[in-house]
């Protein structure tokens, strides 16, 4: 058999002289050039013992569990939340009845930004893109009829994460649950808020300090809870490439580890509960490679750079969500095809948990029917395609392994650049991430506008499409929220409220761990806005420089 | 007389931090030769209307992905009228369902660009609208 170079120079050159290649962009979404063919010649340095290992073994390229999906399928965890706590609770029950195996909560913008539902800044936003939770009373309605020891819940909350987590745990305690048995995931990744999603309240340094409080407190009090989900999802949605998503997310993870070590924590006490969250976008192989590279890079960092001894500290466990940004408002039903292929990539990448987007999400929060169809897509991948029969079926693919190696190489190069700027916090303040992501998203948009890349229904195969039904958010939500807040303020013990807020103020001022005070505040029915105001007063608020 | 360049304010009202679309549109308009002012995040309706008047813009583009679009378009279009600035073109983009488009049109709001829109279309639309308004005003 001819070596690859010779085949390209002779056979392929001859063939393309006669039948030229299509006029298309042969590169990944990250701009990595893709060759016409990959062969064993691309993997001459490839030693499977070093690069892959076995599933459940270092460096976990093939998956963190030994049995992977033959033992247990990934957790099907659909992100849901809109309107009142009552409405979202009803949606949670319907998703569980439809076969979902974990919950994931979307909060509304006032909650994400630490405002009560009746604050002036909350006008027009209450219950719109998630559920409003302003106190323990809302949290109790939200999880009515759900056993926190049986169902794990993920909560997408960042700047107010400590307070919301405390409300969740207080809710579980009041139900008689043992916190040692309560599992779930808190997003709690503030660095990517500064980098991409922009839902920050305080400046970077105190914000990171609040995160590290959970690293210290979580393993002792709620050891089954992932107190952080280091997230690339939002970095990608903001316009980064796949490689940037991988690199910036892992750099964020490393930053938290360094900060926790600076506090004097033992890496093997907290690292096993660090979890991750990645996007699954359109470029099938690049996305699969991203998940495999992520596990390998993290394992090496944790074992070889930070000296973690417990294998659980080396494992990158991750949730994945199909790419919201890839959904189109045009011909919305086509989104179902995109989501199915992205879901397949997430599964072939070995994700531990998955959300599939609903086809109507470029228009509104999903209807119940659309959300159920999205869940059904995961069930089809799980039970009908056969991809779950064997572990990491694509390992050894010349193309996929080359791509995995290339993404790892580029990620390590980004680590060097970020370190040269003085680390993640310095790079944020310098505007490095905003520039990198802004340029990438601009180039992607140009490629579509200039028809170098085609998006079905957007710049190719355009046609008129019928309207699809959308989820309307009931205007009642504002009234229900106001009434419940007023009742909470009227009926709670004002002395307990004052004591809890003082304890929080004191912890914030003296720099001690804030979590005990947040638990006290949750049980005292302090509102979210009251607690965040205390910290606004101590830490100040952050405004980013405006860059286009 | 040389025509002054088209001036556009791109604004992010409310708590929504999703600024990818706003920034891409701002760059596209600027590359097309327009003068673009971007407000940054977390603006109230009043801040946006003040900026539009002070900066003497021809158009205000609102980017809302949080579902709060009706609230902000209503408030901002009313405030522009009250302050005798209804000649400023108000348009926008974001997650806006078709069902809301009629009501927005009734408020005098211009085009709404939803996910998948081409920046070329946005540029062409703003240029066409503003040129039409200027020739009417002469």
Overview of this protein structure:
- The complex is a heterodimer of chains A (548) and B (138).
- With 548 residues, chain A is α/β, with parallel strands linked by helices.
- Chain A has a domain at 48-423: Methylmalonyl-CoA mutase (TIM Barrel).
- Chain A is 50% helix and 7% strand.
- Chain A has helices at 4-18, 48-51, 68-71, 85-97, 109-112, 136-142, 161-174, 191-197, 204-221, 233-237, 242-262, 267-270, 284-305, 311-314, 335-348, 368-384, 398-420, 424-430, 432-449, 476-491, 494-510, 515-523, 528-539, and strands at residues 75-80, 102-106, 153-156, 184-186, 225-226, 228-231, 274-280, 317-322, 353-355.
- In chain A, helix 7 (161-174) crosses helix 22, helix 13 (284-305) runs parallel beside helix 15 (335-348) and helix 13 packs across helix 17.
- The relative contact order of chain A is 0.14.
- Chain B has one domain: Cobalamin-binding domain (Rossmann fold, 3-Layer(aba) Sandwich).
- A five-stranded parallel β-sheet of chain B has the order 2-1-3-4-5, with helices on both faces.
- Chain B is globular and about 40 Å long.
- The model of chain B has no long low-confidence stretch (mean pLDDT 93).
- Chain B is an alpha/beta fold and 138 residues long.
- Chain B has helices at residues 20-31, 45-54, 69-82, 101-106, 119-137; strands spanning 7-11, 35-38, 59-64, 89-94, 112-113.
- Chain A binds chain B through residues 109-110, 112-113, 115, 121-125, 128-129, 193, 197-199, 237-239, 325, 327-330, 361-365, 438, 441-442, 445, 448-449, 455, 457-459, 467, 470, 473, 543-544, 546-548, and chain B through 14-20, 23-24, 26-28, 30, 36, 38-42, 44, 65-68, 70-72, 95-99, 114-116, 118-120.
């Amino acid at each position: 058999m001819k070596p690859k170079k010779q085949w390209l120079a002779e056979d392929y050159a001859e063939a393309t002289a006669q039948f030229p290649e299509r006029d298309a962009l042969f590169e990944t979404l990250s701009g990595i050039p893709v060759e016409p063919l990959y062969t064993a010649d691309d993997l001459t340095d490839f030693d499977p013992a070093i690069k892959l290992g076995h599933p459940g073994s270092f460096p976990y390229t093939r998956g963190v569990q030994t049995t992977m999906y033959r033992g247990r399928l990934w957790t099907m965890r659909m992100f849901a939340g809109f309107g009142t706590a009552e409405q979202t609770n009803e949606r949670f029950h319907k998703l569980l009845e439809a076969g979902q195996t974990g919950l994931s909560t979307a909060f509304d913008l006032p909650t994400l930004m630490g405002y009560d539902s009746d604050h002036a800044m909350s006008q027009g936003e209450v219950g719109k893109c998630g559920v409003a939770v302003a106190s323990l009373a809302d949290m109790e309605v939200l999880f009515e009829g759900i056993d926190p020891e049986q169902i794990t819940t993920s909560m997408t909350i960042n700047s107010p994460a400590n307070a919301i987590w405390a409300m969740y745990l207080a809710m579980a305690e009041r139900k008689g649950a043992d916190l040692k048995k309560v599992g779930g995931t808190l997003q709690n990744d503030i660095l990517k808020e500064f980098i991409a999603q922009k839902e920050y309240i305080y400046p970077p340094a105190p914000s990171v300090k609040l995160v590290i409080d959970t690293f210290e407190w979580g393993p002792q009090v709620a050891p089954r809870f992932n107190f952080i989900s280091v997230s690339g999802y939002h970095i990608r949605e903001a316009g980064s490439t796949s490689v940037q998503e991988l690199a910036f997310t892992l750099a964020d993870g490393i930053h938290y580890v360094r900060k926790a070590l600076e506090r004097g924590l033992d890496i093997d006490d907290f690292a096993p509960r660090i979890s991750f969250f990645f996007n699954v976008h359109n470029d099938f192989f690049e996305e699969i490679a991203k998940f495999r590279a992520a596990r390998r890079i993290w394992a090496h960092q944790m074992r070889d750079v930070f000296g973690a001894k417990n294998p659980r500290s080396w494992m990158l466990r991750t949730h994945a969500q199909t790419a919201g940004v890839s959904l189109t408002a045009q011909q919305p039903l086509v989104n179902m095809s995109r989501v199915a292929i992205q879901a397949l990539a997430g599964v072939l990448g070995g994700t531990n948990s998955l959300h599939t987007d609903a086809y109507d999400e470029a228009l509104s929060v999903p209807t119940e029917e659309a959300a159920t169809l999205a869940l059904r897509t995961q069930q089809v991948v799980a039970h009908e395609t056969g991809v779950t029969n064997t572990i990491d079926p694509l390992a050894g693919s010349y193309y996929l392994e080359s791509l995995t190696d290339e993404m790892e190489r580029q990620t390590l190069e980004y680590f060097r650049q970020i370190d040269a700027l003085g680390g993640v916090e310095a790079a944020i303040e310098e505007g490095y991430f905003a520039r990198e992501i802004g340029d990438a998203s601009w180039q992607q948009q140009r490629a579509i506008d200039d028809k170098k890349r085609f998006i079905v229904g957007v710049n190719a195969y355009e046609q008129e499409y019928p309207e699809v039904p959308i989820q309307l958010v009931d205007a009642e939500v504002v009234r229900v929220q106001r009434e419940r807040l007023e009742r909470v303020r009227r009926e709670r013990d004002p002395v307990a409220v004052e004591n809890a807020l003082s304890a929080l103020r004191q912890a914030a001022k003296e720099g001690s761990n804030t979590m005990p005070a947040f638990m006290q505040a949750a049980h005292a029915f302090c509102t979210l806005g009251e607690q965040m105001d205390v910290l606004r007063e101590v830490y100040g608020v952050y405004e980013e420089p405006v860059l286009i | 007389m040389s025509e002054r360049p088209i001036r556009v304010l791109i604004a992010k009202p409310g708590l929504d931090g999703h600024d990818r679309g706003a920034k891409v549109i701002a760059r596209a308009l600027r590359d097309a030769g327009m003068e673009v002012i971007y407000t940054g995040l977390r603006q109230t309706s009043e801040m946006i209307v003040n900026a539009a008047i002070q900066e003497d813009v021809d158009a205000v583009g609102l980017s809302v992905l949080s579902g709060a679009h009706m609230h902000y378009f209503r408030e901002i279009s009313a405030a522009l009228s009250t302050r005798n600035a209804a000649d400023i073109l108000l348009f926008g983009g974001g997650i806006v369902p078709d069902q809301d488009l009629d009501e927005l049109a009734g408020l005098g709001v211009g085009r709404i660009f939803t996910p998948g829109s081409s920046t070329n279309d946005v540029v062409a639309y703003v240029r066409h609208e503003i040129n039409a308004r200027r020739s009417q005003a002469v």
